[in-house]
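To illustrate this point, what follows is a protein record of this kind.

___
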Amino acid sequence: MNKTLIIGALTFLGLSSCATSSSSPAMADLRALDKEGSKKELVERLGLVAPAERDGEWFAIAERGAAAYLGQLNLEESSGEGALKESESLLERFPQLGRSTTFMSARLELGVKAFRANHGSFRHSGGSNPWVAKMVAFIEKDTLTPDGPSRLAKDVVLGRLIPVAAYPLFEVAAKRDAAKACADQVFTQGFVDAAIAGSWVEENAKLVAGACASKKGDLKTAFKAEGRTRDEQRALCKLIGEEADMKEACAKANERGY
């Protein structure tokens, strides 16, 4: 190969390299902040890079910086809501972050801490619980961390509210992977309590007939528990009344005037 061809090839490679990496001042600033600098400043500057320049390098810096920023947020009780808003704002501004396991994992960790912190800011009596409803809305945006609903139930709801309060999170988990959700012991007591209360009957009936067939044993144990009222037994019989070993007991529970 002659010298002219070699020089031409090297020149082409150099131009190609430049073409695949943005040289704008905004990207240069992000590179510097990614190496050493304020993560708050980094996320504030992500939008200064033109959309056409938001390539793989930009995305890698964005997911690292945004995840680190969420981890640094102050989670005093008064700022739990503010921290959640910060994470949602990042997702709204940069939807690409919703495809990042790094960012979504950091978002879940933040959510667990923030929802714990703002528990006292919500009403927890009568009807649908707005605190849990907000958790459901939060985790429905995350399809990358499969244990998200279980984490929120175990680490946030249980211990603060009665187990059945976590049922809406179980619903989210069951829609994604019913077999896994039904096998998760975190949700067992809430599932049983929902059955005892006669809540979510249609949903539970479908699950017990399929993916949650393993829960029949828990429901039977609940039926036989000391102090169980007749109304509670009737509610449980809606789910297990056709089982061979429960037909007689459920027939008795359903007797009029009994």
